[in-house]
Amino acid sequence: MNTIGKPISRVDGKLKVTGSARYSAEFDMPGLCYAVLVQSTIPAGRIAGMDDSLARKAAGVLAVLTPENAQRLPGAEKRLSLLQDNQVYYNGQPVAVVVAEKLEEAHHAASLIKIRYSVSAPKLDFVAGFPSSHPGNHNGEPGDMSWGDVDGALKDSDIKIDQVYTTPIHHHNPMEPHAAIAQWNGDELTVHESAQDISGHRAKLAKLFGVQESNVRLICLFVGGGFGCKGPLWSHVPLAAMAARQVNRPVKIVLERPQMFGPVGARPRTHQRLTVGATREGKLTAIRHEVHAHTSVIEDYLESSAFPTRVMYGCPNVSTIHRIVDLNLGTPTYTRAPGVATGTYALEVAMDELAYKLNMDPLQLRLLNYTENDPQTKLPFTGKHLRDCYTRAAERFGWSNRTREPRSMRDGSQLIGWGVATETYPANRRPASALVRFKPDGRVLVATGTHEIGNGIYTIMIQTAADALNVSPDLIDAQLGDTALPPAPITAGSMTVASVTPAIQTAAERVRTRLLQMAVADSGSPVHDASVDEVDFKDGLIFRKLSPNRSEKLGDFIARNGGQPIEGIAHVEPDETLKQKFASHSFGAVFAEVSVDPDLGPTRVRRVTAVYDVGKVLNEKTARSQFIGGIVWGIGLALHEDSHMDARTGRIVNENLADYHVPVNADIGEIDVSAIDIADTHLNPLGARGIGEIGITGTAAAVANAIYHATGKRIRDLPITPQKLIA
Amino acid sequence: MTTENSSRTSTVPETDSEEYSSVNPATDMIDCKLSRRDFVKTVGYFTGAGALGLQLISVETIVECAPLEFSASAHTVELTVNGLVHKLTMDTRVTLLDALREYLKLTGTKKGCDHGQCGACTVLVNGRRINSCLSLAVTHQGDQITTIEGLSGGEELHPLQTAFIEHDGFQCGYCTPGQICSAVALLEEARRGDASFVTPDLAHTGRVELTPEEIRERMSGNVCRCGAYPGIVQAVQTASRTL
Amino acid sequence: MNPFEYQQVDEPATAVDAISRWRGSKFLAGGTNLIDLMKNTVEQPPKLIDINHIPLRGIEQTPDGGVKLGALARNSDTANHPLIRKNYPLLSQAILSGASPQLRNMATNGGNLLQRTRCPYFMDPAFSRCNKRTPGSGCSALEGFHENHAILGASDQCIATHPSDMCVALAALEAKVRVRGPKGERIIAIGDFHRLPGTTPQIDTTLMPDELIVSIDLPPSPYGSHSHYLKIRERTSYAFALVSVAAAIDVDSGWIRGARLALGGVAHKPWRVEAAEAALAGQKLSISLFEQAASRALSGARPRRDNTYKVEMAKRAIIRALTIAGGLA
After folding, report:
1. Is there a single domain that holds both residue A591 and residue A523?
2. CB B22 to CB A121 under 8 A?
3. pTM > 0.90
């Protein structure tokens, strides 16, 4: 088979377009009842009293869980709000749970609970928190990292850029809200949860409730979008399990849309100061990237915005610094291209500013500072074809027709602008397991505990198995999203494909070898007595290579051999020594054309062209959607998304999809994406680096740079709204 | 990516004390004593030409849903969904969306925001697209309701469903049923000449040419957070040519 | 959502009778705003009177050459009615600029008039202070988030804006709202229908609680295609206006016989600017004239800390809308 790389339609497409795909809130079971969260309305303090008498009397109510009566959990952690004490750390924190027979009843009863608070002075002023900010790390990587002599080099630089770039709080807002159905059977807990990390959530739930991991099962067949917020385990899931235990029935909890703006993560606010030095010829001499970002008062999260600065350009003196500001807000978390999305915005706008100061084509400036090695470690990249991305994207976009001056391109009353930026995202891989099973009916099952979140992994799993086994994809079924299956890592960080496909390949190889060994040993088989090297398996047939006509169907073989499935299981770890030899990152080049109404302010992104170097593309069709999705997020980052916080109460005032603007269809113009498609086999056998996040990186900068080119206005505070452009 | 984030204690000084009431402004006025037994039953079904002439699913099962009866706020309504009549006695508060998902177990229609701000709950009522989350079920006596489950004729997909797969007009799939229901209505609106905000000439009343700009505007009531908009536009364009 | 009684009525008299009997009850039409607010517990009617079966969906020409819009005609049907597209394209444009196709299919003309504000402090009861929701509790927006709030006609009790697009066009078109109460019918000019907040921001309109809107009557329009609805928003579609303008000009070979101008997103009601209209009447079409009219329209603006941009934005929007309406674009 040769399915890898082909634009194969999603195997789960039919389920999704007919409404048959089952998301986590869509399982029914006898006795199912409904839980609704009650949230705090103050940012800091404690609950002084709670009157739930009306709620308890309300129709259909089965239980009201409060800090006073909630089950005490042995493994409770402060990062979660599990009603273990009276403390309030942020506005919107879960403080009670109402369980009722019907959803309408639970909602209504929840509104009847009266809470008295003792209010403390909240920390809500981000900038005022800078002096007391503290360092941190991201995924074990230190927030501070420098090389060379930045101060000295800046002093000697011919040209200098020193600007502050800011990005607001974002909320992930997948279309499917967080949801969980929890059910106890004795000490066994089953949870249907919309999650990006069923294994991780299982481990945490087991710890919280003091049961064995094997007693907890997480199931998630489809995730209706996550973008990072369904990576960590949040409070509502253990709360649903607590409720289920209390009422001794299965309990369903689905967050309401406003509840998506607080207790389930956010992209934190960033304040990024970029100081860039260069020679008159445009060679970078120094970069200092100093980041402040917020976290909650209960848990550290570091938005690693300066990380891309460590890898992007050849520069002898670099300093990257991160400081975390504690605020009385819900804990932020990974949001599509965490750190990199916000960081490439700042860095790539600063590069544009530098290009204008040098009177140089911004693409030329980037090529001039191109690096073949990781500038920090000097290690070679596992594969880097960014130069080809620049060239190809510039050609497809028509960059050579660009006029240099701002406000030099028009279309009627609209100003037109073009911008460019570099994109990057680290290549990640984690240990993963998979099984491949030959079934008695002659079909093949490929399974692993990963997550289908729109990444197309059902399809990729089948393609991988099809190619590894030489079996038509039509004969293969895929199963995922269940902790009863061999475990896979969190679906995040663009690493699912890089982690899971090697496990599938190895499992496939094992089951194939096992089959052939059984076949040559089977006196009834047409390949009996041949050596394993002399026989083959293809398209469901076992045969001798030299006489392929003497073959047997897989199903017939299994039937004759006891009717039991034949299975291969593999656990595959990435080569940890790779990091000592190579740096591994994806790259890309993105160009944007905007039109801006100079009098009224609105910006339209008319077209975007991007070319990516992401290793091997496994499915052209689904990959295209991943790239485009990232670009749409980049446009939202540039123009739309902004969670407005009430400065006094720390409550998000636009906690709904009418006022928190994600891009709608009319916001998106023509998008042209393609990939260099050269396998990076250092990372994994298929040579795929993962593509879920790179599209958002750089895009906001390309749009912001295009707006500058159109208008001559440099807006350094995202999003670039009409009001900022007419100010 | 995940790593454990360190938990830290922080001390916030308590300053003043303030009393806040519940989020329900009327808590003191409400006395809720609704005793009830839930009762939901599908009493019959029929097939025939329904909304948009789509082939309707014929289902023979009599669905015995969970159980209820209400006092003050109960109401009986016959909902005709994809050609099947369901007689429901239920709380007047139940929205059409929740009636479909939670009572009739037709979970193809999605809840994204529950406030008419995302379009995931789009269904067709008498052929017109609406947000089922803002519509009370009790108001739909006698209406022909078509959901995503009613668009395809058994194994045969509606041309829009085929086009969405072909052009990969989705990723996670959660907004997809709403997108497709919306698009089905869009094609009918364009055929009969309905204008949109970007229609250049309102005086022209004939069939609308579905340019990408027209499709984008007309599909803007359906948010796709995965950002599959270009594929959605292509899918609608393709289907508009075949239908 | 609170539990409520539900009753269907099929004629105006029954509707008015029903609502008079139940204090606090509400008419249910399209439900797009009412159900939304009931879910947030902002509205808690003990009873809903479903008026969708009253035959008030017609759109018809009146003897004087105007058009009568049934109160229960859906927004999408109104925008697409041949009479409206031909004679009142300003109204079609305004309706089509608002919400989404799904919501326009549900929302009724009468309901559109009764939309409540999008002020977050009003919509989210977790904020205890809102004079519109809880009279006398204070206004959280004054010192809070108010980027999208009013710059004209506000009070120190409330700075909320009216969210409708359709009503801005109706204000420019001088529509009349025909309502029916226990004592019969009366007509309210659109300019008198919505209120300014003053000291009673909890009252949005001059409609009495026991009155039913039966139609919106449009006088004959001399403006035709010399009109334009311009809407500035933070995304290209499906967003409320930062600022919007309904402009209509009665043009005779380059001269303005009369003009109508109304603004959205700037006040507690659709903000008609008669002073600017007067400045335009009798003058020759020109950009500089439009600039004068724009200045005059905003002369009373009193922005707050975070919405000063609206003054300049509104001026520019007026100039652009008049330019397009006048055919100078």
Report:
1. no
2. no
3. yes
